[in-house]
Amino acid sequence: RDHYCILNDRHSYFLLVDNGTCGRYGADIVLRRRLEQYIAQKKALGCGTRRVPIVCAVLEGGTCTIRAVNDYLNNNPPVPVIVCDGSGRASDLIAFAHRYVRDDGTLPKEVASRLLSLIEKIFSYSDTCSHELLDEILQCARQRDLLTVFRLGKDKRQDVDHAILTALLRGQNLSPFDQLALALAWNRVDIARADIFMNGKQWPSHSLHSAMMDALALDRVEFVKLFLENGLSIKKFLTISRLEQLYNINGTHSSTLRHLIGKKTSNEETELKLPVIGAAIERIMGNVYKSYYTSRQFKNKYSKLKGKDQMSAVNNLRNIRAVHLKTRNQVRYRNLSSSFDYLCSFTTNTLLKP
User: Taking the complete model, does pTM exceed 0.70, yes or no?
Assistant: First the structure.
């Protein structure tokens, strides 16, 4: 029984690997490395431009862990690594080397001797094997930009998710927009403020519009304040289309607004329109307040805007038909699914425009 492991009950799902051996460690290493490399190269959300962020967290571990960390740091693309100092064995050795490695990638003589003694003591290695493992540990420690050492309790501000997100921002070579998306998803405005909007960097107002929509949808109040502090213009952001979209977030669920309107959700039409919302606000106020959304001026403006959107969609569909007829002779064997995707690529872009 001493040769077997128990499943960690803090996880919900498990992937079991069998290479035919029994009572030996390492059956999962090759498959796990290949799977993680595949995920790291995969685009997020199918056709998105963002890669799936991956980080390796090291707690304790043996010699196989040290070799795995070395591979992570030298992969293409490389995977950032977090080492939990104080968790024992491999983690402590890598953290020790990381603390004392010099800019030229070497260790002071006395530190190297101390590290060799620790390797021999922990793994019961011979002098030759200890030197080989020391070289691998040094290769890990030299990757300072990709290696983060987490010391629990040393810095009250640093917690585990802070360490993980910081490692991702430093090691994944993400664009500022992807970094902001990660910080927003993790609800870490402190990291966004310190590492993304650092040195008072001002972003173009329009570049924050998508992030602002996400912050409002996720109820991230501190991020809304951060975007306003860094140049986002509410006047330019809050278009009629965006305002209507915000009112209709999670529109398939019952809400106080829908109850006041008396509109039952159905498959035919579930989207709330601003004039209807204005009428509901007037009802709440007891008809002592006149909403701008119910005024003739706004309704005329609203009708023109919706008319332009519909005409734009019609014109794009006409253009698609013209292009399709023109290219039909050049591409004779376009199958049905390809034609459908070709058509949807235009209509989707049209519908997503504010």
Answer: no
Identify the CA nearest to 56 among candidates 91, 97, 15, 30: 91
Q: Are 272 and 261 in contact (CB under 8 A)?
A: yes
Looking at residue 117, its amino acid is: S
CA gap 160, 3 in Å, rounded: 31
Residue 79 exposed, middle or buried by CB count within 10 Å (0-12, 13-18, 19+): buried
| Separation in Å, CA 127 to CA 113, 123, 140, 159 | 11, 11, 20, 38
Count other C-beta atoms under 10 Å from residue 309's C-beta: 15
CA 229 to chain centre: 23
Residue by residue, what is the 3-state secondary structure of 244-272?
HHHHCCCCCCCCHHHHHHCCCCCCCCCCC
For residues 7 and 56, give the distance between their C-alpha atoms in angstroms, rounded to a whole number.
19
Give per-residue pLDDT as tens, 276-314: 888 888 888 887 888 899 999 999 988 888 876 543 443
Instruction: Quick: pLDDT tens for 104-144.
Output: 889 999 999 999 999 999 998 988 999 999 999 999 999 98
Please write the tens of the pLDDT for every residue from 32-87.
878 887 877 766 544 445 667 888 899 898 998 999 899 889 887 788 999 999 88
- Give how far Cα 35 sits from Cα of 43, 52, 146, 304, Å: 14, 12, 20, 52
On whether the CB atoms of residues 7 and 14 are closer than 8 A, the answer is yes
The amino acid that residue 306 corresponds to is K
**77 cis-preceded (ω within 30 degrees of 0):** yes
